[in-house]
Amino acid sequence: MRGTVNRVILVGNLGKDPLREDLENGASRVSFPLATSEIWSDQFQGKRKQIREWHQIVCLDQRLADLTMRKCRKGTQVLVEGRLRATLVSEGPAQWVRTEIVIDGSGCDITILELSKSIRRKARKPRARKS
Questions:
Q1: 10-28 burial code (b ≥16 CB/10 A, e <16)
Q2: 15, 18, 68, 72 - which has most CB atoms within 10 Å?
Q3: Cβ distance 31 to 61 under 8 Å?
Q4: What is the DSSP string of 56-83?
Q5: pTM of the entire structure?
Q6: How far apart are CA 63 and CA 104, in angstroms?
């Protein structure tokens, strides 16, 4: 194999409302935690089991960042296509690796699959008619 691939595709729900941060270069980044779940039946006990994983999503693409801020809230189900980035973080004597899924350009995307309940409720409220 000649080349390498760094591509992540996840379907999950936002764990919090997206957060916009302004960067020094005038651009902005939007980040949010994304929950994915794996569900299976235990072979021995026959009980349903579930593991939830949390992923930190960072969107640097301005068009997708704006879309995320307008349309996504906690609970929104999205499909995220990005790349994996690991960064060494140091705080005092402690060091750890923070892993993020970065959405920053070609081949990266956010697709809204289902709006959160709070956004759906707002969309259903009838508007007052002007006479």
A1: bebbbbeebeeeeeeeeee
A2: 68
A3: no
A4: EEEE--HHHHHHHHHH--TT-EEEEEEE
A5: 0.81
A6: 10
Q: Residues 16, 32: contact at Cβ < 8 Å?
A: yes
Where do the H-state alpha helices sit in 1-114? 62-71
Q: How far apart are CA 54 and CA 51, in angstroms?
A: 10
Listed in sequence order, the residues at least 6 apart from 76 whose beta carbon sits closer than 8 Å to its beta carbon are 13, 14, 112, 114, 115, 116, 119
List Cβ neighbours of 86 (8 Å cut-off, separation of 6 or more): 97, 98, 99, 100
Q: Is residue 99 within 8 Å of residue 118, measured between CB atoms?
A: no
Q: What number is the average pLDDT over the span 64-84?
A: 95
